[in-house]
Amino acid sequence: MNKSQLIEALAKTEGLTIKKAETVINIMFDAIEDALARGDRVEIRDFGSFKVKEYDGYQGRNPKTGEVISVGKKKLPFFKVGKELKESVDK
User: Do 49 and 91 share a domain, yes or no?
Assistant: First the structure.
């Protein structure tokens, strides 16, 4: 399922116009993105949680040239699946 399919499913289920459903989905994704950018954790009960993980820098190699390069520290979003979702998928 992609974003446009999610919008269509919301519109159909809740009797909304596509435009209103798109606004709802965009607000939800923007709120999650803003919370993660602030370093907050986002938990959606029975679904899972999002948080930002920090990774240390390391020495890597350029795959084309074999040259040693320095890869800096980075932060990436991480999703941990909730128990309910895990069980429903594993049926």
Answer: yes
Q: How far apart are CA 32 and CA 25, in angstroms?
A: 11
Tokens 């895990």 appear where?
86
CA–CA distance, 21 with 14 (Å, rounded to integer):
9
Range of the structural domain that residue 87 is part of: 44-91
The Cα–Cα gap between 59 and 81 comes to: 31
Residue 49 and residue 85 share a domain: yes
Predicted structure pTM score: 0.80
| pLDDT per position as a tens digit, 49-74 | 999 999 999 999 999 999 999 999 99
DSSP-derived letter for residue 26 is H
